[in-house]
Specification:
This protein folds into 2 domains: about 25-140, Jelly Rolls (Sandwich); about 155-260, Sandwich (Jelly Rolls). The strands form 4 sheets. Strands 1-2-17-14-19-13-12 form a 7-stranded antiparallel beta sheet, with no helix packed on it. A 6-stranded antiparallel beta sheet has the order 3-4-10-5-8-11, with no helix packed on it. It has a 3-stranded antiparallel beta sheet with strand order 7-6-9, with no helix packed on it. Strand 6 (about 95-100) and strand 7 form a beta hairpin. It has strands at about 25, 30, 45-55, 65-75, 85-90, 95-100, 100-105, 110-115, 120-125, 130-140, 150-155, 170-175, 185-190, 205-215, 215-220, 225-230, 230-235, 240-245, 250-260. The protein contains no helices and 19 strands. Bound molecules: (2S)-amino(carbamoylamino)ethanoic acid and manganese (II) ion. (2S)-amino(carbamoylamino)ethanoic acid binds near residues 197 and 241.
């Protein structure tokens, strides 16, 4: 019998919970199911729980979070950070996002790119909780290139492309692909059941991966990990990686990738 099939008693930890953990923290990657990621509170966010998924203490050169914003919560005042860019992606519920004189409803699939030093506000003025994926990265300027402009959009406005020629793959590049002003990508990666990527990748870029839909097996380092919606993976540079979707529906994850800058020596 599997642990979740054993009789459970309300108010007590689940039977068989000890020792059942899909999470792994290895030197060059981390696999994190949501249940183990504890609550943080942050000074600039009111009535908001932050679950910090990636941080320099883990080995990542960026920070990534799930924000759970209660009704009436969000940024206490317009917020900006010198030298740091932000990215937000709506997971569930509806918030309001304002930046540079523009404001918009921010629901599932909405996203925002906040250039370094730019003030924005993110508020939940509704009656239901809101969940948002957030990312912060120090901007790496490049000689002769301007800082990117702010973006407030929705994934439905971004075409699904497929440069691989492989059946069942789909890509949505949420930030303008190939625009060298940007030093990172945020890509929605779509897979039909069975449409795995054919080779184990090993590359200098780092990833923050948040599973949005479906399920599959993820190869990290030397091991396969079963993954499904709401799981998070940090992959450091040169972490061997491959995804093999399983199940009967599409799988989709949102992938952070640092790009467009030379190696710092
Ligand atoms: O673009 C990428 O690096 C991507 N294929 N990696 C991944 O999905 N783990
Ligand atoms: Mn990759």
């Amino acid at each position: 019998m599997r642990p979740h099939q054993l009789p459970q008693t309300a108010g007590r930890p689940a039977v068989g919970a000890i020792g059942h953990n899909r999470g792994v923290v290895a030197p060059n990657y981390a696999f994190m199911p949501p249940e183990g990621v504890l609550v943080s509170r942050l000074p600039h966010l009111d009535k908001t729980i932050a679950r910090i998924l990636a941080a320099p203490v883990l080995g990542a050169a960026f920070a990534q979070y799930v924000l759970e914003i209660a009704p009436g919560g969000g940024t206490r005042a317009p917020f900006a950070e010198d030298g740091i860019q932000h990215f937000y992606y709506g997971l569930s519920g509806e918030a309001a996002f304002a930046m540079g004189g523009t404001s918009a409803a921010f629901g599932e699939g909405s996203f925002a790119y906040v250039p370094p030093g730019t003030a924005f506000s993110l508020r939940n003025d509704g009656a239901e909780p809101v969940r948002i994926l957030a990312l912060r990265k120090r901007y790496a300027p490049a000689a002769g290139l301007a800082v990117p402009d702010p973006i407030l959009s929705h994934r439905d406005a971004v075409p699904v492309t497929n440069h691989t020629g492989m059946e069942g793959r789909g890509f949505q590049f949420l930030l303008p692909y190939g625009d060298l002003r940007f030093d990172f990508e945020m890509n929605l990666m779509w897979f039909k059941p069975g449409a795995y990527f054919p080779d184990v990748e090993t590359h200098v870029m780092e990833h923050g991966l948040y599973m949005l839909e479906g399920q599959g097996l993820y190869f990290l380092g030397r091991d396969w990990h079963e993954i499904w919606a709401q799981d998070f993976i940090w992959m450091g540079g040169y972490c061997p990686q491959q995804f093999y979707p399983t199940g009967f529906g599409d799988a989709c994850y949102l992938l952070y990738k640092n790009v467009n800058r030379d190696v710092i020596l």
